[in-house]
Fold:
Amino acid sequence: MGLLPLPKSLPLMALLWAILFTLMTSSTTPFASGDDDDGKLSAYEVLATYDFPRGLLPVGVAGYELNRETGEFSAYLNGTCKYRIESYTLEYKSTITGVISKGRLRKLKGVRVYVVLLWLNIVEVSRDGDDLDFSVGIASASFPVDNFEESPQCGCGFDCDKLKDGLVSSS
Structure:
């Protein structure tokens, strides 16, 4: 009794199984932004695991991806987000990318700040004790970590209640 002939599609099926196995065991893990029933961390909780406050991201992160081996990440908003805090206007693109490690966000893309008459890209954020240092490449500024404990809201920052009451202009 001889061996049965193998189907010609066997190599294709083996390739598909190899791709599926690779995808299932990949170190890049997509996560939703909210507290899920299945125990996945929110983007804000992930920031805390790297020693950053939640207020680095505005309210409404729709999801994110994080490669835990390299620190490469992408965070997703439901569109561009802009708001004003004191004399600064901040803008987040719908996708923010970079590399995260303990106390350091580098190669940051998708976040910029309006200072004087220029839009400047924030390229790095690092934690130095109780301060956060924000770098735009040619210059940096430090702010207390406590200023970032709460996440701002798109459009109104931290003045949303005042806007509802008509106490703050929306410019």
About this structure: The chain has three helices and ten strands.
